[in-house]
Design brief:
DUF7322 domain-containing protein; mainly alpha; transmembrane helix; transmembrane; DUF7322; membrane
């Protein structure tokens, strides 16, 4: 029979080169650390930063699109301003956390006041 592609190379078999990856990879990738084992201040700072960073990303990406594609300057400007304020709050929380732990301050009253600022 006529072969339309006589020079076609054979397909390589990846399992012959790297074995079976499904068998070699670990099955359970969950960490062995419980949430209760983490310092509550670190946990609170982390989740607060995650939420604020998501708000910043949302506002800073949606705002310019509203302005450019729909011409909605009021809503787009508000989204940009909200994103910028949320981004600045993330930076403020990060710097305050870093200053508390790098400088070695352990005063609970100062920590609580800075966290709630």
């Amino acid at each position: 029979m006529f072969d339309p592609w006589p020079d076609e190379p054979e397909e390589p078999n990846p399992e012959s080169r790297w074995d079976d990856p499904e068998r070699d990879l670990p099955r359970d990738l969950t960490p062995d650390i419980d949430e209760e084992d983490v310092d509550p201040e670190i946990l609170e700072t982390f989740w607060r930063s995650v939420v604020l960073a998501n708000i910043a990303l949302f506002g800073l990406s949606l705002g310019p699109m509203l302005v450019y594609f729909r011409g909605q300057w009021l809503w787009g400007g508000a989204a940009i301003a909200l994103g910028a304020v949320a981004g600045l709050r993330v930076y403020h929380h990060y710097r305050a956390f870093q200053d508390r732990h790098v400088d070695g301050e352990d005063d609970d009253a100062t920590d609580t006041a800075e966290r709630n600022a």
